[in-house]
Design brief:
- This protein has 53 residues and is α+β, with helices and mostly antiparallel strands.
- Helices cover 21% and strands 34% of the residues.
- The longest helix is centred in the C-terminal third of the chain and has 11 residues.
- It starts with a strand and ends with a helix.
């Protein structure tokens, strides 16, 4: 299961002179919670590989 959210923040740099006023900065924060279970024996790994490929 994956659970999270994203908070983007765009900031145009329009205060710059001339052609540079078209640039900007984009900041992004993405906290994510996840959980997974993994195979613990060689037999479980082989079965998982056989099923997925």
């Amino acid at each position: 299961m994956v659970d999270g959210y994203e908070l983007p923040y765009p900031q145009p740099l329009s205060f710059l002179p001339g052609w540079a006023s078209n640039f900007g900065v984009l900041a992004n924060i993405t906290p994510v919670k996840s959980s997974a279970s993994f195979a613990t024996t060689g037999r479980e790994i082989l079965i998982a590989l056989r099923v997925n490929f």
